[in-house]
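Consortium newsletter contribution from the modelling node. Members have asked for a concrete example of what our holo predictions look like. Here is one, prepared for the 2-OXO-4-methylpentanoic acid complex that several groups have been discussing at recent meetings.
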Amino acid sequence: MSLVTQEPLEIAPQLAALVNEFQLPKPLGFGQAMAPIMATMDYCDGVWSDLSLKKYEPLSLDPACKSLHYGQLIFEGMKAFRLVDGRVALFRPELNSRRFNASARRMAMPELPEELFMQAVMSLSYHLRHAVPKGDGESLYLRPLMLATDVGLSLKPASTYKFLVIASPSGAYFASGKVTALIERHDCRAAPGGTGAFKVAGNYGSSIRADIKATSLKCQQTLWLDAVEKSYVEEFSGMNFFAVIDGELWTPPLSDSILGGVTRDSVIKLAEGLGVKVHEQPIHIDDLISAIKAGQCRELFACGTAAVISPVHALAERDGTLHELTNLKTEESLSLALRRELVAVQTGAKLTAGDWVKPVSQMPC
Ligand code: COI
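And here is the predicted structure:
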């Protein structure tokens, strides 16, 4: 395990006092309680200002700023974990930095040098190290984001932007263990050549209507199909899709309409390490349903930073038809084995070949 190389930013005494007073909420929930400090930096005419830590408070934005009108708004999702030795570490943070810059390029926004991104997430995690929860499935969820702040209604690239990292001590994303996903056969999440492969706020906003429909049908998630043929599985609203078919792992190949998840990549590598064959192949929804009916597909799961690995127990249609998966014993479940493996790596209980876990300090905290 190699430490994040930069020194953490200094913190002002009044901010340190706010951090000391901060109590973990009970229950934790996901993304509900915000830590009292955030990292922030501004961009103007080609130059990033100095990165600083500030009190968490509302932003002052001009009502005519371009992010509010034209959606130049990108973000990341990542976590600081409590390691088994008591230290706090980030998990593959350089992948988030690269994806953030890929999103920035797609949205004609300025890139952020990797060392600045790392210093922001590392400094915030370091100063909030006592607010990283210790429970099973708990962590400090970090949300880096960038938005255009230029004032004006012409549809032109902005020249001023704000970068922020906020943090929220969080537990499981899905409050109840049982997840049913509604197959969305009408709306589409992302089209070829669009922004689906990037962490652009609008992708998530446009999924909400389908999620409302899903909730009304007692489903916890939406399963999106491709925009052209409305036949091939793409992903869930905020997570990648995996199926276990005849003991092998299947996931759609990355494309310009599927987000390349850090957890997706980690799951593939961990599964291969366990000797499981992984197919990154198109999955036709009819073939998937047939495999569920035939008992060949016995597990589905959603994976992502927030969701970790969350088993999906059934797929649903709008008319109420349910395609239910067989109930497996814990020891038969590949998704639970992969979840255990992933959590063991993220908490430093198990070392991987890659340098995936980056402690933010030498000492337990
Ligand atoms: C994440 O997993 O970090 C995301 O950004 C997904 C979001 C729906 C919580």
